[in-house]
TrEMBL record:
Its main location: membrane. It is a single-pass type IV membrane protein. Keywords: Actin-binding, Membrane, Phosphoprotein, Repeat, Transmembrane, Transmembrane helix. The lineage of its organism: Eukaryota, Metazoa, Chordata, Craniata, Vertebrata. This is Calmin. It comes from Cathartes aura (Turkey vulture). Residues 5-112, 160-264 form the Calponin-homology (CH) domain. It is found in: Membrane. PANTHER family: CALMIN (PTHR47535:SF7), MUSCLE-SPECIFIC PROTEIN 300 KDA, ISOFORM G (PTHR47535). It comes from the Eukaryota. GO terms for molecular function: actin filament binding. Residues 124-138 have a biased composition (Low complexity).
Length: 330
């Protein structure tokens, strides 16, 4: 239930960001209710696709017209090569919470995340992410087998590829600050991953040494506030959404993708060579996050790159939680 509530809040904020671009703008108050007549859905797709859909909308309290509106929106998605599985107009018109969230996630995945990570792919010869309907994963390769099972496998495959590409981008932006991001769930609870992305965009906005002395709640609040006020990245999450045992992956992915959307110039700067070793540019380094094969001896560069240090620790003893590198060699 809590995961569903987090998704509802995150997706509602994301939808309102786009509906605010309309003239006149629209706003969702309760996603599960407001989506039931098809107007919000059509308006959202119109903004995202740049195509006209609202002329198809028929305002009515009668269920048959509401179903018709939603069916037209779903047909538009299918024609756009958005794979929808087990989602029909009746379930959306009835406000089925899990299917409404599933529908919005598919829209986010296709119109934002897949497109953004597709741009990463175009900047990287090492990635195999398909960036459009003409790619190797599209239906055109097997036009005669439109089975539900096949649609499901492609949807999962595309989703995993897109999220994996975004994760690699995040890892390359955060690891030089000593932050290890393994997933879009528990890796974000401390708030350090969000702060590291911000620092990668503008190093003057975040002090990672200070962040290590703060609580998770403080770091999360700092990250969301700085991102919105200094970088113009809309706030889709609250600290309470992340400070749980299993943070919602889809909500975090939706939020993190905005950084890539707002700062596309960061895309290819170090993504094109995934095997390239990047220096760790941090005063504090988390030894426990270092790959085991490199755990015995760790090379560390200061942020100014003027001083170089080698840290040794006995493999037979537990690694310390963190190491403080002073500004002077001793």
């Amino acid at each position: 239930v809590e995961r569903e509530n987090v998704q509802k809040r995150t997706f509602t904020r994301w939808i309102n960001l786009h509906l605010g671009k309309r003239k006149p703008p629209l706003k969702v108050k309760d996603l599960f209710i407001d989506i039931q007549d098809g107007k919000i859905l059509m308006a959202l797709l119109e903004v995202l696709s740049g195509q006209k859909l609202m002329h198809e909308y028929k305002s009515s309290t009668h269920r048959i017209f509401r179903l018709n509106n939603i069916a037209k929106a779903l047909k538009f998605l299918e024609d756009s090569n958005v794979k929808l599985v087990s989602i029909d107009a009746a379930e959306i018109a009835d406000g089925n919470s899990s299917l409404v969230l599933g529908l919005i996630w598919n829209i986010i995945l296709f119109f934002q995340i897949k497109e953004l990570t597709g741009n990463l792919n175009r900047n990287s010869s090492s990635s195999s992410l398909s960036s459009g309907p003409s790619g190797p994963e599209s239906d055109t390769s097997h036009p005669s087998t439109p089975s539900v099972e096949r649609n499901m496998s492609i949807t999962v495959k595309d989703q995993r590829k897109a999220i994996r590409a975004l994760l690699i981008w995040v890892q390359r932006k955060t690891r030089k600050y000593g932050v290890a991001v393994q997933d879009f769930a528990s890796s974000w609870r401390s708030g350090l991953a969000f702060l590291a992305i911000i620092k990668a965009i503008d190093s003057t906005l975040v002090d990672m040494k200070q962040a290590l002395e703060k609580s998770s709640r403080e770091n999360l609040e700092d990250a969301f506030s700085i991102a919105q006020n200094k970088l113009g990245v809309p706030r889709l999450l609250e600290p309470e959404d992340i400070m749980v045992e299993s943070p919602d992956e889809q909500s975090i992915v939706t939020y993190v993708a905005q950084f890539l959307e707002h700062f596309p110039e960061l895309e290819g700067e170090d993504f094109t060579d995934p095997d390239k070793e990047l220096p760790i540019e941090s005063t504090y380094v988390h030894i426990k996050d270092t790959p085991s094969e490199k755990e015995g001896k760790i090379l560390i560069l200061s942020e100014s790159e003027e001083n170089m240090y080698t840290v040794n620790h006995e493999r037979s003893h537990p690694a310390p939680p963190k190491v403080h590198i002073r500004d002077t060699p001793e």
